[in-house]
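pasting Lactoylglutathione lyase-like lyase for the record, 135 residues
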Amino acid sequence: MGLKFDAFGIFVNDLKVMTEFYRDILGVEIQWDGNGPHAEFLHEGIRFMMYERKELPGYLGTEVSYPNGINGTFELAIDLPEFSDVDIEFKRVVDSGATPVLYPRTEPWGMRSSFILDPEGNLIEIGSWGKGKNK
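structre below
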């Protein structure tokens, strides 16, 4: 049997703002009481966590660094069923306060794709490999 990832985590500056964005704007469920440096969302398939950056050096026993501006080191990808869903979801989250980066477009490899930023500059792709025909 091969390696299987159990979880992914994001190290954040403001845990409250970030959990509110992912809960209220993206709609990811969470049962977090607002206390402590760690929050875990209710997410099927893989655990999704956030941890306060200020706690990490003490935990690891060494200094760490973080990107500034748009974080181009990873993306979180949302896969929707149909191409038209990308346009609808992109508009909804931008109208709700997400920062747009790449407006929906159909890529040469056959995917409908768009990108937004979370409050700390992490890239979130809203895309679909569906059968839609939006251009």
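The mean pLDDT is 93.
The chain has two domains: 7-60, 71-128.
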